[in-house]
Amino acid sequence: MPRRWDPTHNAVRKEHAMTIGDRKAYLVGGGIGSLAAAAFMIRDGGLPGGNITIYEALPVLGGSLDGGGNPEDGYTLRGGRMLTTDNYECTWGLFKSIPSLVNPGKTVFDETVEFNQKMKSHSQARLVDRNRAVVDVTSMGFSMADRMELLKLMMASEPELGTDPITDWLSPEFFTTRFWYMWATTFAFQPWHSAVEFKRYLHRFIKEFSRIETLAGVKRTVFNQYDSLVRPLQAWLADKGVNFQKGCVVSDFDLASEAGKVVVRAIKIRRAGKSETESVAISADDLVFFQNGSMTDASSFGSMTRAPAQLTKQESGGWTLWEKLAEGRPEFGNPAAFNSSIPESWWESFTVTLRDAAFFGRMEAFSGNKAGTGGQVTFKDSRWLMSVVLAHQPHFANQPADVQVFWGYALHPDRIGDFVAKPMSECTGAEILHELCGHLNFDRRIFAKAICIPCRLPYITSMFMPRALTDRPLPVPKSSKNLAFVSQFVEIPEDVVFTVEYSVRVAQMAVYELLKIDREIPPILHHDKSLEVNFDAAIKAFK
Asked: Are 262 and 131 in contact (CB under 8 A)?
């Protein structure tokens, strides 16, 4: 049996202890998966930070956990992942080791727990109808047929569900229930998404089923997740000597076969502003970690006067390297299962920067929630299926006291608006604010000083696309000797994609396997096995 986790114990097996200082690790992509992998190699594997290099095409690290802009031109957030402290075992295990940047003597985990003890979620306006009336969501709105279908889906095995979409298991009426509106907009599910992924969410987040109308289980970071998670982790890695190479595109791997295993021998790199390709040699004991695929690939920002450009993978090239690796190697996954249908995998978000407190005041009065305590307000009858979230302020570490920032998104941006006669995808920031005012029946002058920056995200829910089990590679494919995959497009039994936890868990699994670390990875907590939790869920389903 593996030893239990001990933060003071270097658990690398003895036969590797003598060579660990000579090994190097190269990480392709600077998202949370790569950053977490680097941290686990240092903390648990004893690898010197100076032996680790992270290549990132963008000028900033963090991948999809981003946050940018400024108060003058407007802040930007492509999205934000939901957090809980009932799950996220590997994430919190990592951030218990990462010091806070703003609270000396405390870890990121400590400050997050303390923040959520003060700012408790309890939404009082989770759904709003076409008449701007807050919908009573104490009942999920299920018929007996809805309950039986949902139970059948939850009990089905993954082989039974196969590549089926959710619509193959649930009737059209189910998608008009209050439960669906709340669950779908909390987690960004569409009816045509994978039934397997939907089932995994129901099991993994079953505690949220009983409180989905209040979002009481949702936890938030002090600032946006870039400032609160990425920056402290990056600072810790930098202090350990990790080498960050930004503006670098890894265009190819040189692969060889050794004793029937695939081995990376070199990495091909193109640096920003240079036409020539560099080759970085990889020795026999070196490790390579690859972030295959990205949910924010080909994303584009608009402005108050311009809609976002409609980019595809042809413009971004973000899927190319995975496609090269997977060609003729089915154990490296099947990217086509995820990137072949933008209409089924995209939605649009928007970030609004305000220098006038009027909107926040009106929304707090309307919703009954102070900013940071209410979660999403979803306009369930809107053709765009629009939601907005007012976070606790400041939401950015550098945000002035007289500035407020809120975020919103819409699951159906291809549809004509209710108050703007065009699809959201063709709307400027000003037109999105016009649509929002229509649903709230607010005077449009409330946004006279607002800056709204829309963001088109063509692959944001590509991880939810119906797929076969083999379409996602294992963290370390059985045919690989020194190459691991760390992303949302890797297979972990029972865990759920579109979470920070998934990226961190994959990273920990890959690092422990390649470095042969003899330490237990925090197990997935099976709240779905609890009689009490299941009883609470059953009561909620029958309300």
From this structure: no
Distance CA 221, CA 228 (A): 6
pTM comes to: 0.95
Instruction: List Cβ neighbours of 67 (8 Å cut-off, separation of 6 or more).
Output: 75, 76, 77, 223, 224, 225, 226, 227, 396
429-440 vs 358-367: helix axis angle to the nearest 10? 40
- 138 CB-contact burial (10 Å; exposed 0-12 / middle 13-18 / buried 19+): exposed
- With tokens 């949302």, the residue in question is 488
Q: Residue 426's Cα: distance from chain center in Å? A: 25
Closest alpha carbon to 217 in 206, 229, 202? 206
Residue 435 in tokens: 């649509």
Tell me if residue 18 falls in helix, strand or coil. coil
Which helix H or strand E contains 69, and what residues bound it? strand 68-70
DSSP symbols for 149-181: HHHHHHHS-HHHHTT-BGGGTS-GGGGGSHHHH
Q: Are 194 and 166 in contact (CB under 8 A)?
A: yes
In 229-296, beta strands by DSSP E: 243-246, 248-258, 261-271, 277-281, 287-290
Which among 502, 491, 454, 378 is positioned nearest to 79, based on CA atoms? 454
- Residue 156 tokens, joined: 């089905």
Instruction: Calculate the alpha carbon distances from 346 to 226, 319, 412, 463 in Å.
Output: 22, 16, 9, 11
Interior CA angle at 183 toward 179 and 189, to 5°? 125
pLDDT of residue 8: 40
Q: What is the residue type of 164?
A: D
Residue 261 near residue 480, CB atoms below 8 Å: yes
How do beta strands 451-457 and 300-301 pair?
Answer: antiparallel
State residue 316's pLDDT score.
87
Q: How high is the mean pLDDT in each 10-residue block of the chain (543 residues)?
A: 42 52 95 98 98 97 95 95 92 98 96 96 97 96 98 98 98 98 98 98 97 94 97 98 97 94 97 92 95 96 98 91 96 98 98 97 97 96 98 97 98 98 98 98 97 98 97 97 97 96 98 97 96 96 93
First vs last C-alpha separation in the chain: 45
Strands in 414-496 per DSSP E = 451-457, 483-485
